[in-house]
């Protein structure tokens, strides 16, 4: 038995089923509570738009649920680990498994295997569901919860420069000459950088060259006067290729699409450290679920007669949440260029893997 990483088939299935049930229960509880709090804070903005009602609230909930699932799935694995291991410890099942000749790693093997499956499902869910829901929700928020955009590949809060002038758009959809912008603002600036004119329009399309603003409102800074303009073409030096490279939101594109965007940025000589860190984190983020049984194992092993089960559970929880804090901090440092992208995404994972192994070995002794 000592030479087999997994215990018997019956025991492996028993522990795996118990672990999956607790992961789902904790995840559903967290998502429902957080969704209700989110709806309480956002429902006012959604219902303030004329024509919005219960259907729009349900649409918002449907778009937010994938984000909440992706964000809190690792937390659910951590809490499920603590709940499962505390129960096994209280019922002396861990003692029975160790008396049968199983090591601590063999006891945790079904949990680690289940977490690996959860990490794979999480990666696929992020790629197929979360990125699309995030892109749609950000575009909808940029449109101030008006009409829901139907176009995919939507980018939000895009800022472009044409010499000293600036063109900003709340949302950009499409690619090439079919690009369409919404909630557009054109700032004409003097050579010294002062804004001399501002033009706002709900829509902008490519005019080859330049960008056509329709139903626009012009504001002259010098005269402090405003006038309506049916149509005007601005930013004639701004090409669709520049718009395509203007901004990539890693949260709204898949792993392989982001890889292509990074290649285009590097070919254009643009900085890619932030995108590269997010690209690596699309792998290390879901894989963090595999760490949770290791960090929470202190709740199952240790001084069995000390009576400090609650304290050990708190230690396991602290280790798990410390990982998420360090992970977010490292990713932020990678975005600012303080860490190399690979190190920003993987250093917390490797560090806490070593911490978990150390704690597991020490507590087992």
Automatic annotation (TrEMBL):
<feature type="transmembrane region" description="Helical">
    <location>
        <begin position="107"/>
        <end position="125"/>
    </location>
</feature>
<feature type="transmembrane region" description="Helical">
    <location>
        <begin position="338"/>
        <end position="361"/>
    </location>
</feature>
<dbReference type="GO" id="GO:0055085">
    <property type="term" value="P:transmembrane transport"/>
</dbReference>
<keyword id="KW-1003">Cell membrane</keyword>
<dbReference type="GO" id="GO:0015920">
    <property type="term" value="P:lipopolysaccharide transport"/>
</dbReference>
<dbReference type="InterPro" id="IPR005495">
    <property type="entry name" value="LptG/LptF_permease"/>
</dbReference>
<keyword id="KW-0812">Transmembrane</keyword>
<feature type="transmembrane region" description="Helical">
    <location>
        <begin position="20"/>
        <end position="40"/>
    </location>
</feature>
<keyword id="KW-0472">Membrane</keyword>
<feature type="transmembrane region" description="Helical">
    <location>
        <begin position="309"/>
        <end position="326"/>
    </location>
</feature>
<keyword id="KW-1133">Transmembrane helix</keyword>
<dbReference type="GO" id="GO:0043190">
    <property type="term" value="C:ATP-binding cassette (ABC) transporter complex"/>
</dbReference>
<protein>
    <submittedName>
        <fullName>LPS export ABC transporter permease LptG</fullName>
    </submittedName>
</protein>
<dbReference type="InterPro" id="IPR030923">
    <property type="entry name" value="LptG"/>
</dbReference>
<feature type="transmembrane region" description="Helical">
    <location>
        <begin position="68"/>
        <end position="87"/>
    </location>
</feature>
<dbReference type="Pfam" id="PF03739">
    <property type="entry name" value="LptF_LptG"/>
</dbReference>
């Amino acid at each position: 038995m000592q030479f087999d990483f997994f215990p018997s088939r019956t025991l492996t299935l028993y522990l795996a089923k118990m672990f999956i049930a607790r992961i789902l229960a904790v995840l559903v509880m967290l998502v429902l509570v957080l969704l209700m709090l989110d709806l309480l804070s956002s429902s006012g903005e959604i219902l303030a738009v004329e024509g919005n009602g219960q259907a729009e609230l349900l649409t918002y909930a449907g778009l937010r649920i994938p984000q909440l699932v992706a964000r809190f799935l690792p937390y659910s694995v951590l809490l499920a680990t603590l709940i499962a291991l505390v129960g096994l410890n209280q019922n002396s099942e861990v003692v029975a498994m160790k008396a049968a000749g199983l090591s601590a790693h063999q006891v945790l093997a079904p949990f680690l295997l289940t977490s690996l499956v959860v990490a794979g499902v999480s990666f696929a869910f992020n790629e197929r569901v979360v990125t699309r829901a995030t892109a749609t929700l950000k575009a909808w928020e940029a449109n101030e919860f008006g009409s829901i955009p139907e176009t995919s590949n939507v980018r939000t809060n895009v800022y472009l420069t044409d010499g000293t002038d600036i063109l900003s758009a709340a949302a950009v959809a499409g690619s090439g000459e079919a690009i369409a912008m919404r909630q557009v603002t054109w700032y004409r600036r003097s050579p010294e950088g002062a804004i001399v004119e501002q033009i706002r329009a709900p829509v902008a399309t490519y005019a080859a060259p330049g960008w056509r603003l329709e139903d626009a409102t012009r504001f002259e800074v010098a005269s402090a006067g405003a006038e309506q303009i049916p149509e005007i073409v601005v930013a004639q030096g701004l090409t669709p290729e520049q718009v395509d490279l203007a901004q990539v939101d890693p949260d709204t594109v898949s792993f392989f699409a982001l890889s292509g965007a990074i290649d285009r940025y590097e070919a254009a000589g643009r900085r890619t450290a932030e995108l590269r860190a997010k690209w690596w984190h699309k792998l290390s983020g879901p894989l963090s679920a595999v760490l949770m049984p290791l960090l929470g194992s202190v709740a199952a092993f240790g001084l069995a007669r000390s009576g400090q089960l609650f304290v050990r559970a708190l230690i396991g929880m602290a280790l798990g949440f410390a990982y998420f804090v360090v992970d977010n901090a490292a990713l932020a440092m990678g975005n600012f260029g303080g860490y190399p992208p690979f190190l920003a995404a993987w250093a917390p994972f490797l560090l806490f893997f070593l911490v978990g192994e150390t704690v597991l070995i020490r507590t087992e002794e």
